[in-house]
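name: query_chain
kind: protein
chains: 1
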Amino acid sequence: MSLFSQWEELINGQTDETFEEFWKLYAGTEQKIYKSILAEKNPVVSGTFQELVDRYEADPVIFMGFLDGINTSLESELDLAEVKEDTAITLNIVWEKLFFNMLKAKAEYLYTLEEWAGILSEEEQIAIVKDFKRSGTVRKEKEPGRNDPCPCGSGKKYKKCCGANK
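structure:
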């Protein structure tokens, strides 16, 4: 069974009773890895899967979960289903994308890390937060009033034309 399959099985097999303990383990490991990566201030992390597991002192299946989470924040995504312990991995992290995705995941324990200060300025972080908030805003087109001219161009009132069935 591939490491990615093991990760999917682990996450999908959680029950209400086991989830809290699993989450403490996963979130703690994830936070430790991100602190280390952000402290290095190097957007390129490379090595074999096993070397990275050893470097960050993580369980291999939990580290696969980390890769699953960071995958959309990379310049080019990894094919996680093909990753084995001896697979060479290079993570080219796009900091802005990573920060945005942490906001999207509601991972406050990650996007509030002090280590971000050396990577993205406060202004950059604020701009990314604004972009994130804007991306979730849905604007509804204003519907014409009943007595307004119909937008279809017929010349009739909206209530006698396209708005008749509403």
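note: The beta strands are 44-48, 88-92.
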